[in-house]
Amino acid sequence: MAVKEELLALTSGMGLAGVAVSNFWDYGAEALDVFKDEIIECIVKTNKMTAVHWYLYFYQDIEEEVSKLWGAVEPEWIYYYAVRTLKEVNLNPDLPEVDFDSCKEEDCPHYDCEVGEKIHEWTNYIRENHRKIDDLIVHSAFQFIFQDRNFLHDFHLELSKLVEENIDYIKEKYPDFVTNKNKIRRQYFPKWMINAIFYRDKGTCSNAECRCDLSNLIRTQNTIHIDHIIPLDLYGSNDASNFQLLCETCNTKKGSRSTLTGAINVPCWNLEKEKE
């Protein structure tokens, strides 16, 4: 099935992803614990809603963000922020544009005037639609984080602690998804997830020392393996963000006790200076 194209809130998503990554080592464990039940549900069986999504929700709250702006910045800035945000998430409310020059009060701060009332209409619209906006921004932020296998490695290493500490609870709640050795049971890989991993990893083995082609366009003898970055034997999970593309040889060498991954990606262009 072809990848569905859609408008992504990349600017807001990039900002959220940056906050989430930079704060992970200080608040990661706390964030995972806040959404423990939701995360457990998506790690026992591969789901499009991942543990990373729930982690991002720990930081994303457009309703609270807008509320904090009043009194902290100029109303004009709030208005343009609201317009940009709604445009980015493809919401086009039938609200009047704000003309600040139309204000009849001299040196007006625009808190209680007609201009201010119009700004409140925009921010109220955001509050009324905050769940949809948050969902779209989190979805966009995930696209950035999903590209970073090194961060995903660290994220799932931290998540493995939650799995180990709560394995009895997980087994009680999802008995069919836990093995006799008290590890998450391996599940069937859905096609959409395989396609996503293949697309992200450019049809290439993720091992930096290998990087062999797995697209079957150049060499046909290499076999694709979908690998758990943090193995199930190390309390890894079936979360859709805990996978990478490896060739059969590298996956066999990695085994069930290694968390090997690679940070090499394909840039849009290189920074090497051209020879004169």
What does this molecule look like?
The chain is mainly alpha-helical and 276 residues long. It has a domain at 24-58 and 146-254. It has helices at 10-22, 24-34, 36-44, 51-57, 62-69, 75-88, 114-128, 130-145, 149-165, 167-173, 191-200, 248-254, and strands at residues 224-228, 243-247. It has a two-stranded antiparallel sheet. Helix 1 (10-22) packs across helix 8, helix 2 (24-34) packs across helix 9 and helix 6 runs parallel beside helix 7. It is globular and about 75 Å long. The two termini are 46 Å apart.
Draw up the topology in text.
Elements: H1 10-22, H2 24-34, H3 36-44, H4 51-57, H5 62-69, H6 75-88, H7 114-128, H8 130-145, H9 149-165, H10 167-173, H11 191-200, E1 224-228, E2 243-247, H12 248-254
Helix pairs in contact: 1-8, 2-9, 4-8, 6-7
Question: Short summary of the structure?
Answer:
The chain has 276 residues and is mainly alpha-helical.
Describe this protein with a few key phrases.
globular, 49% helix, 276 residues, mainly alpha
Strand content: under 5%
Order of helices and strands: HHHHHHHHHHHEEH
Task: Compute the CA-based radius of gyration.
Answer: 23 Å
Major β-sheet strand ordering: 1-2
Number of strands: 2
Average pLDDT works out at: 91
- What is the share of helical residues? 40-55%
Major β-sheet annotation: 2 strands, antiparallel
